[in-house]
Inverse folding.
């Protein structure tokens, strides 16, 4: 069930194969930051994992249920909102050794295409920008479905993950361990748990 991507030459096929239930999802959605999490996991000292998240982010989904290939997604993340549960470590991550949040306050993602994997999952492909370095990012996503919440909001939900090498985006700081290896792994696992609210239709 592919809901994201850029319109391509297969739009006619996408329209013909679209599940009728998807048509009702067509519209613009705002990511609900209060009920969404953008997180990461990185190996520390070669033996354990450190987990963190970015508390401040905003994004939009433009879903086209009749032609899913024409849908798009975008997210802007505030680097200063990084939170690993330890203030000193968060300060180091914001510093020039890592994200340099003062110079590069935002991390962004913009979708470019989608590859359906099965009825419930698909591969979202786009551009991730960190510290003015833009490289492709592939996110495997599961569509959790849609519902109307107790306040009457129409919601859709997604969960996804990806793995990157932080050095590809210029995040190269490290420290050697006496026993061999390094303090922080190059590989970082990203996680996305997204709830988005459909915007009300504008009437004239």
């Amino acid at each position: 069930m592919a809901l994201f991507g850029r319109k391509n030459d297969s739009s006619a096929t996408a329209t013909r194969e679209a599940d009728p239930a998807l048509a009702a999802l067509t519209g613009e959605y705002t990511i609900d930051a209060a009920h969404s999490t953008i997180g990461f996991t990185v190996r520390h000292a070669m033996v354990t994992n450190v987990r963190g998240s970015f508390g401040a982010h905003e994004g939009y989904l433009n879903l086209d249920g009749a032609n899913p290939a024409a849908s798009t997604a975008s997210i802007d993340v505030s680097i200063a909102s990084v939170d690993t549960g330890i203030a000193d470590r968060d300060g180091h991550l914001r510093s020039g050794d890592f994200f340099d949040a003062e110079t590069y306050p935002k991390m962004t993602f913009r979708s470019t295409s989608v590859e359906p994997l099965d009825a419930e999952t698909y591969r979202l492909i786009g551009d991730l920008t960190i510290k003015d370095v833009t490289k492709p990012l592939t996110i495997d996503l599961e569509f959790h479905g849609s519902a109307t919440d107790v306040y009457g909001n129409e919601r859709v939900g997604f969960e996804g993950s990806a793995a990157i090498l932080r050095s590809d985006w210029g995040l190269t700081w490290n420290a050697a361990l006496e026993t061999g290896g390094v303090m922080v792994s190059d590989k970082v696992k990203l996680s996305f748990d997204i709830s988005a609210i459909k915007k009300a239709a504008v009437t004239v």
